[in-house]
Amino acid sequence: MKKLKADLHIHTNEDTFEKIRYSAKELIDLASQKGFDVLSITNHEMVTYNKELEEYALSKGVLLIPGVEPIVQGKDILIYNLPDYEPGTIKTFEDLKRYKRDDTLIIAPHPFFPSPRSLLTLFEEAATALDAIEYCHHYTRRVNFNRKAEQKARELNLPLVGSSDAHLLTQLGTTYSLIESAKEVKAVIRAIKEKKVEVVTRPLDFRHAVDVWVQLFRQGPIDTVIVLTWTFFYLLFRVELNCILISSALSRLSASPSRPSPGDRGTPSSP
Q1: What's the average model confidence in pLDDT over 139-146?
Q2: C-alpha span between 159 and 193 (Å, rounded)
Q3: Can you give the pTM of this predicted structure?
Q4: Domains (ranges, CATH) in the chain?
């Protein structure tokens, strides 16, 4: 069975919480060009999905899964295949558990990233409602807040799902999932729960990470993204800069000509 290339956490300019420059159709167009088979648009507190958009995606070879990123107890959660979701109806993790069904999927997005909307200390409280944990693309080789997500996925025997959490089109394709499934909504959900999913990812290099931050900052004072990227890239900059300075200092030190110590000068020969 073919593995489906999927990104299940993406925002578009239909999201009233964010200031994003591309529409759902523009996203679908690019995803089709990049060979994606499955997408979910997960705007905050709203489902960006209707028959027209579903058919438009299908015409581009893309299966569109209804998704939403509700704010539950002040934290971001991803839930799928709930097309009739009404804003504000899931207020607590107990409410969330009522939507845990065979035909729905609940994922913890960026659970341990340094943002007030990440689960962080509330992860354990939310854990019983989860079907999977996200592996998010916002990381570098040295700074990776996904490591604790990997640990928790192993402890709870939950699948990891790779996604971009894209707010820029350039973020699409940095991290995604390969899902061994038929190209149908319920089949994809079932395959993820059965852990028939593989994360495809690569760390951002320092320049790419800074470029993402600058572009997000230029979009204006948006809600989640600014808090997340400010904190993340501040830490990233400090760590990466320190590593660069240390590496540079060590290189200069190793390149310096060595000076013989007094004990290395030898003793004068006797006449």
Answers
A1: 88
A2: 7
A3: 0.83
A4: 3-207 (3.20.20.140)
